[in-house]
């Protein structure tokens, strides 16, 4: 087995530089504990002294304990002509009282002369002086050689001088940074190989994704002997993001045989990825490798037929290793294999019902041709299958509904009122309710009528509502598709409706959601 690699997460600092990403102090503390569960070795909490939020984080994190992770404070070298003992940035790092401190310095000769207005020699001095001062005052000291690869390509001799100046102060790790994210793997391989001939201090790698190869660059560096890799969960970061630890970790473990976390910790990868997205209020990227909902999803009938016999035919790893699972989608590309797979998933026996399978496939293709989509609405598809088999219970019958939108004056906001009439068992219920929009009003009126008969509907919550116009050519008369995500205390499910009338499309999705909940609770009330 190869030597383990240290994982250094900078989601809480570098990741927050991503556009539209912001975490509260409490968010950052919660994420830190999730990273600890995942087995991350170092968690970079932020830049002490740069803003009140980071200062608050370092103050509060002192009272928290971690099983694996160590918290790192991040900052820059001291300013020119200001000794470290008087430099506010350096002193703020020490005030954070973290076991790990990471500072960055300039490796590219254009930065001292063009951006910092200091000489190249002064830049070497502040790198050495800052590290020399910090070394005896912290447990672990890491140096990030910012823009190292660009500096190396522009002026190899000077870039190496900055690294040698840092090494002379004896930090625990020298991290080579592709800060602009412009390098390709063959360049990383060459530069790391050459640097290792002159540097004996352990090396790290920090890549950005501006050329879409940050993960590949990180892996190449590790294969060249780097033992420390930096990145973020889900690749969050400035511009195009940082190297994605959600890809680096399983690639190291499962493809290269390089240990970094335990097998049990690896199974938490999907959970941590989604947890961070939730706190960042970011929609989970379904196409993300390893942890995306589509990473192990199969749509084509030929593919599904093959994976039913052996998942390895179209899956590069068992999805359970990273906490994910196999999914089979139903669409107009589906064949009998897809239907049989979903039937088994839903607990429906279709193995000996070829006629019903053909009927379901035909109906599915017709519905998708009209605009229905079941990939995000599997509850609706399950109900469709049960209806085709004559196993879909009837809980209530619609006799009619009416929705009115009204605004009484410019001073008052508009409101919606829905009136419905339904038959439940032997009763006819005629109710009305107002709501924040017509769909909410319909939902309120329907619940008002049904909850007396089915009290379990009080647990049902509408979690998400999406509308898509399927053809803009018809203007306001276009056909629309409504996807509703609902949930209760134990699960979430999606339903779909399609119509030229957005209220009717919403009604279809809403009814499916309610009927799925009732079916899930094994309610078997049938209209007489």
Can you give a write-up of this model?
- By secondary structure, the protein is an alpha/beta fold.
- The chain has 4 domains: 254 residues, TIM Barrel, CATH 3.20.20; 73 residues, no CATH class; 87 residues, Double Stranded RNA Binding Domain, CATH 3.30.160; 58 residues, Double Stranded RNA Binding Domain, CATH 3.30.160.
- It contains 18 helices and 16 strands.
- The strands form 4 sheets. It has an 8-stranded parallel beta barrel, surrounded by 8 helices. The protein has a 3-stranded antiparallel beta sheet with strand order 11-12-13, with helices on one face.
- The longest helix is centred in the C-terminal third of the chain and has 19 residues.
- It is elongated.
- The protein starts with 5 loop residues before the first strand and ends in an 8-residue tail after the last helix.
- The C terminus is likely disordered.
- Describe the main β-sheet briefly: 8 strands, parallel, barrel
Question: Can you tell me the number of structural domains?
Answer: 4
Which residues form runs of ≥5 with pLDDT under 50? 523-528
How many alpha or pi helices? Answer: 18
Task: Examine the secondary-structure arrangement and name the CATH architecture of the largest domain.
Answer: Alpha-Beta Barrel
Task: Assign the CATH superfamily of the largest domain.
Answer: Aldolase class I
Extended strand count: 16
Distance between the termini: 69 Å
The amount of beta strand, in percent, is 15-25%
Q: Nearest-angstrom radius of gyration?
A: 29 Å
- CATH names the topology of the largest domain as TIM Barrel
Structural class, by secondary structure, is alpha/beta
């Amino acid at each position: 087995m190869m030597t383990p690699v240290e994982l250094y997460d900078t989601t809480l600092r570098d990741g927050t530089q991503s556009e539209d990403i912001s975490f509260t102090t409490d968010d950052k503390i919660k994420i830190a504990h999730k990273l600890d569960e995942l087995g991350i070795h170092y968690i970079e909490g932020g830049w002490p002294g740069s803003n009140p939020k980071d200062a608050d984080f370092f103050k509060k994190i002192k009272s928290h304990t971690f099983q694996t992770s160590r918290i790192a404070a991040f900052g820059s070298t001291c300013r020119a002509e200001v000794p470290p003992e008087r430099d506010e940035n350096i002193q703020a790092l020490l005030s954070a009282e973290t076991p790990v401190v990471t500072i960055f310095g300039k490796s590219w000769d254009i930065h001292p002369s063009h951006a910092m207005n200091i000489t190249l020699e002064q830049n070497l001095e502040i790198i050495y002086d800052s590290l020399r001062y910090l070394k005896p005052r912290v447990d672990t000291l890491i140096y990030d050689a910012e823009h190292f690869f660009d500096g190396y390509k522009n002026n190899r001799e000077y870039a190496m001088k900055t690294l040698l100046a840092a090494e002379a102060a004896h930090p625990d790790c020298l991290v080579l940074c592709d800060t602009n994210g412009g390098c390709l793997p063959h360049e990383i391989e060459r530069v790391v190989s050459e640097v290792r001939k002159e540097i004996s201090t352990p090396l790290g790698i920090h890549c950005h994704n501006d050329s879409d190869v940050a993960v590949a660059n990180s892996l190449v560096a590790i294969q060249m002997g780097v033992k420390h890799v930096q990145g973020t969960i889900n690749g969050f970061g400035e511009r195009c993001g940082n190297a994605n630890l959600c890809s680096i970790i399983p690639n190291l473990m499962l493809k290269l045989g390089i240990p970094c976390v335990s097998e049990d910790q690896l199974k938490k990868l999907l959970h941590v990825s989604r947890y961070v997205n939730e706190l960042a209020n970011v929609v989970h990227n379904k196409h993300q490798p390893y942890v995306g909902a589509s990473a192990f999803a199969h749509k084509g009938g030929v593919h599904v037929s093959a994976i039913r016999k052996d998942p390895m035919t179209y899956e590069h790893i068992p999805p359970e290793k990273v906490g994910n699972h196999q999914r089979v989608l139903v669409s107009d590309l589906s064949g009998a294999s897809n239907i049989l797979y979903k039937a088994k998933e839903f607990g429906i026996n279709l193995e000996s019902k070829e006629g019903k399978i053909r009927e379901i496939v035909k109906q599915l293709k017709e519905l998708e041709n009209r605009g229905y989509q079941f990939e995000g609405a599997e509850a609706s598809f399950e109900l469709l299958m049960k209806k085709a088999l004559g196993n879909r219970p009837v809980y209530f019958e619609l006799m009619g509904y009416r929705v009115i939108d009204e605004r009484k004056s410019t001073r008052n906001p508009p409101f919606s009122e829905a009136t419905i009439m339904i038959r439940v068992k032997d009763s006819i219920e005629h109710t009305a309710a107002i709501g924040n929009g017509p769909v909410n009003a319909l939902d309120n009126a329907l619940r008002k009528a049904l909850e007396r008969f089915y009290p379990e509907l009080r647990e049902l919550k509408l979690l998400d509502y999406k509308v898509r116009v399927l053809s803009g050519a018809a203007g306001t008369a276009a056909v629309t598709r409504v996807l509703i995500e609902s949930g209760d205390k134990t699960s979430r499910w999606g339903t779909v409706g399609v119509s030229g009338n957005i209220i009717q499309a919403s009604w279809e999705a809403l009814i499916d959601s309610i009927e799925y909940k009732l079916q899930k609770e094994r309610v078997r009330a049938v209209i007489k």
